[in-house]
Amino acid sequence: MSANFVKNALGRLVPTEVNGVPQIPYMGVGKYKPIRRKYAPLISSCADYPADGNKTEPGLKDALIKSGLRDGMVISTHHHFRNGDLVAIQIFDIAKELGIKDLVWVPSASFECQSVLIKYLEDGTIHHIEGSMNGSLGRFTSQGKMKGMGILRSHGGRYQAIQDGEVIIDIAVIAAPTADAFGNATGDRGPTACGLLGFALADSQYANKVIVVTDNLVPFPCIPWQIQGNNVDYVVVVAQVGIPEKIVSGTTEITKSPDRLLLAEWTSQFCDEAGIIRDGFSFQAGAGGTALSIGIYFADILRQRGMKARWARGGSNKYLVKMLEDGLVENILDGQTFDLEGVRSMRENFGHVNTSPFTSYNYHGKGNFASMVDVVILGATEVDVNYNANVVTHSDGTLLHGIGGWQNCIASKCTILPIPLFRDRMPIVREEVTTICGPGELIDVIVTERGIAINPLRKDLIEKMKNSSLPIKTINQLKDEAEAICGVPDKPKFTNKPVAVVKWVDGTIIDTIWQLDD
Amino acid sequence: MSANFVKNALGRLVPTEVNGVPQIPYMGVGKYKPIRRKYAPLISSCADYPADGNKTEPGLKDALIKSGLRDGMVISTHHHFRNGDLVAIQIFDIAKELGIKDLVWVPSASFECQSVLIKYLEDGTIHHIEGSMNGSLGRFTSQGKMKGMGILRSHGGRYQAIQDGEVIIDIAVIAAPTADAFGNATGDRGPTACGLLGFALADSQYANKVIVVTDNLVPFPCIPWQIQGNNVDYVVVVAQVGIPEKIVSGTTEITKSPDRLLLAEWTSQFCDEAGIIRDGFSFQAGAGGTALSIGIYFADILRQRGMKARWARGGSNKYLVKMLEDGLVENILDGQTFDLEGVRSMRENFGHVNTSPFTSYNYHGKGNFASMVDVVILGATEVDVNYNANVVTHSDGTLLHGIGGWQNCIASKCTILPIPLFRDRMPIVREEVTTICGPGELIDVIVTERGIAINPLRKDLIEKMKNSSLPIKTINQLKDEAEAICGVPDKPKFTNKPVAVVKWVDGTIIDTIWQLDD
Is B348 on the interface with A (CB under 8 A)? Predict the structure, then answer.
């Protein structure tokens, strides 16, 4: 790869071109403002669609052929079925059968269940992936084996890129737990209910051709219509679109680890002492065991004081649903359901609302929900002394995770990362992170089992916590403690070949992921 | 006005240019297919919007000035408050105060309550109106007094025109019964609840600047968000956005006229004998007294036979809501609520669903709901022997009504117009209509108190009704009977100056409205 490189505003070396397309280096938070127009899809005409609304095709192959599937096309899928998706692989099996080459796959995220697609990355059916690459697909990429360069985006960044025409999707395939023949589709009901379909919203709005694949066809109208049939070209009925048990995220139980419980306790105590937990506040906690435990602490505090939160952002789960149904939080603005209680609640509770990356995360909108959240609690694989954080690579340099909504969420009023100081004797707080996913200026607090560091930019928080009983330290103290125990970690060894880039929420490149040298 | 004219596919003389913009003459149903892209709004950035989501401005004037209000701009409003709107006039009072000239007003419809704006049409504050012109504004236009030419569009045609960039809105002002400071807004609750805000959807998606005006500001999040705050620039709180009693449409009671009851009875009998009323069927009846009565007959038939309709299209009213709550119809897909029972039902009933001109009517989508309706019952001011129908002008040539969803609805599987054979001794069925709003090929059945005419194109319906006891006649028989009673009507006298055009659902011009010569 002969790309040229420039240093971006964080001093990271990033390519000026990715897969032949010129790129803009990260310029700082809120610094890059495009002066151009959104992507404009072609105008359709009802004259080209069946008047009776019946868009069904016998099979996915028919629909793909009618959509004009050919070499080099950009194909998108969503990940609401997580590790239980049964549709994405079928698309590329069909492409292989038809002898199609050099497809670009744009999933909202890929999972281990899709690692069989490595064979199509190897044989040229798929040229490269733009989207999260978890597990094996990430490792394959890190090893430099993917033909093209990977492009990692947050959920909001993916919406932004599609809206702005940075990714032009030829064919979107939307797996739907329930749909009608017109293409109206919902994720909140049906035998394989997964909750929402918001990750496919941009695809439905901007893709040239849109195929809805369902295993539960209902008479028109499918209500609610999370995906609007007016954006859909074809509807295909298959035996099963997803495996319900695998839709559920791995971490749906609160942690039992004493270290993690300590992180949860300190984080909630911090929020309380900093005055964040108050009547009408808002919060977002992720799906991990620590985050779930923090939700429990929040609920206890609210219950004791007779207060309630105005809204919480989901990923929803049974704990958040219980808070809603107990009246401790008035609304869940949900982006994806992490368990089946979340799915049930979406159907039953008026205050459990279907959101999308457009409403919640799109940085190229007229504001979004993420910056309005009072406190967000997230994870990280590494944090450095400048509070820059990494969520995609491990300290050995291997790409193993997607960004999810993480980059979007750190726009909140207070972003807290409760993380262990080290994992497997590898320091998590360090001099420099392997990959910067979020700039330090947006990370406010690091909570570890050896102490809590507050970003020096947050003088207000430092002032509020000056008499706290919590062990407030500097980030350098935490790094030194980690290194005192584990030693100074070696840097991972890379070649000079970039294998993927990490986009910032505005479409600029915040960092590069390099080929492992081993 | 020096526009040139051409004859369109219906033989009507239409201008080749309107207000300086080249136009396409009507080419036939489904014949015009634009090969171009939708309108692409400018890309926004969250960096330019308050992170805490508070977009409130002290007043509408501030918001209009911040939106860059200046000469020649295109300003849009919606008509969900119908004759009780209190916001549109304020916009132009402010424009007048600021000395702004030549604005184009694009309401989804205008009503008598806005006739005071005639002074601004006269003094040059407003150049012309694109949108329905009911009553006095229509008469003003017919008299040739408006500076520019009026453009009449259906609800779906308005969405199409905004989506396709045929109307580029500079500032949309959206009056909302409930909203939050971020701009999320809903019509289904609040002291001035009007049900929906769907007529403002296109405006919110495509206008350069969007101002939400509300009299009921609630803490974020306003749920449901019929209008998404992510599309909104400014929020203004005023004392009152609409007068609830006037939101209610005039005709909300079933007819007591024996002639109209006969039309209703024959129409429902026709539907029954033609096999249209069956388990799972769908229908749309308008808001008039006759249409309401037909709904009652449908309900009786369904109840007697233990059947139910799968869906009905609203305008909703207390009769349709009762059918929903009695289990005689499973879903109301609502476009506007005609009474407060409709508003209540929208809030309370899962099956009473918020739709928009995009889902229901946009001809430049991938299908729409209108063509899927089994039977639609509509009115008309005139019908001719070719089944062409008029809904905007009276037989004296005066523009007095908007198109509403009428043009969109006639795409249904069976379109029935129950109309009196004459009104005030003026034949309604005639040789030629004053203005063609809908081509005869889409009008299937005319029901009058002297007989029923079936469009010869509908051989299937003629066959089904051949043994009917209903008085089936030809359209020419009906015309002859009307003329035998009333005499052959004089044609209205026009000058050769066009004052407005009627767009077809695809953006082409189906007919011209001429200046009255009197």
Answer: no
Determine the longest span between alpha carbons in chain B, in angstroms: 72
CA distance B381 to B386: 15
Sorted by sequence, the CB contacts under 8 Å of residue A302 that are 6+ apart come out as A277, A308, A309, A323, A328, A329
Contacts of A491 (CB under 8 A, 6+ apart): A434
Q: Report whether A393 contacts A386 (CB < 8 A).
A: no
Q: In terms of DSSP H, where are the helices of A67-200?
A: 88-97, 118-123, 136-142, 155-163
Q: Which of A267, A205, A266, A209 is nearest to A67 (CA)?
A: A209
Helix (H, G, I), strand (E, B) or coil at A324: helix
Question: Token match 């609502």: residue?
Answer: B334
Topology of domain A57-247+495-516 in CATH is Glutaconate Coenzyme A-transferase (3.40.1080)
CATH topology for the B54-248+495-516 domain: Glutaconate Coenzyme A-transferase (3.40.1080)
3-state DSSP: chain A helix, strand, coil percent, rounded to 5?
30, 25, 45
- The four Cα atoms A181, A183, A189, A192 give a dihedral, to 10 degrees, of 90
Q: Is the ipTM of this complex over 0.90?
A: yes
DSSP letters along B465-488, please? TTT-SS-EE-HHHHHHHHHHHH-S
When CB atoms are compared, the residue of B47, B280, B364 closest to A44 is B364
Q: Which of B30, B280, B367 sits opposite A53 (nearest CB)?
A: B367
Q: Which residues pair with A503 in a beta bridge?
A: A509
B50 interfacial to chain A (CB closer than 8 Å) = yes
DSSP A491: P
Residue A251 tokens, joined? 């971490």
B364: three-class secondary structure by DSSP: coil
| Nearest C-alpha neighbor of A377 from the set A266, A241, A222 | A266
pLDDT per residue as tens digits for the range B416-446: 999 999 999 999 999 999 999 999 999 999 9
pTM beyond 0.95, yes or no? yes
Closest approach of chain A CAs to the CA of B367, in angstroms?
5
Instruction: Mark yes or no for CB contact B230/A280 under 8 Å.
Output: no
β partners of residue A150: A500
Q: Answer whether B54-248+495-516 and B258-491 agree in fold.
A: yes
Q: Which residues of A touch B311 (CB under 8 A)?
A: 220-221
Q: Coil, helix or strand for A52?
A: coil
Distances (CA, A) of B60 to A66, B87, B206: 50, 9, 20
**pLDDT tens figures, B161-186:** 999 999 999 999 999 999 999 999 99
Provide the mean pLDDT of chain B: 95
Name residues 235-294 of chain B within 8 A of A (Cβ).
Answer: 280
Give the integer Cα–Cα distance in Å for B228 and B230. Answer: 5
- CA–CA dist B138, B133 (Å, integer): 5
Percentage of residues of chain B with pLDDT beyond 70: 99
Is residue B142 a contact partner of residue B498, using CB atoms and an 8 Å limit? no
Alpha-carbon A46 to chain mean position: 35
What is the CB-side half-sphere exposure of residue B156 using CA atoms within 13 A?
25
Distance of CA B388 to the CA centre of its chain: 18
Tens of pLDDT, residue by residue over A39-69, are 999 999 999 999 999 999 999 999 999 999 9
- Give the contacts of B21 (CB within 8 A, at least 6 positions apart): none
C-alpha A23/C-alpha A507 separation (Å) is 9
Which chain A residues touch B350 with a CB distance below 8 Å? 223
Two structure tokens written together for B518: 């009197």
Q: Other CB atoms closer than 10 Å to residue B412's CB: what's the count?
A: 25
Domain boundaries, chain A: 57-247+495-516, 258-492
The larger pLDDT score, comparing residue B398 to residue A288, is at B398
Q: Considering the domain B258-491, what is its CATH architecture?
A: 3-Layer(aba) Sandwich (3.40)
Which CATH fold would you assign to the domain A258-492? Answer: Glutaconate Coenzyme A-transferase (3.40.1080)
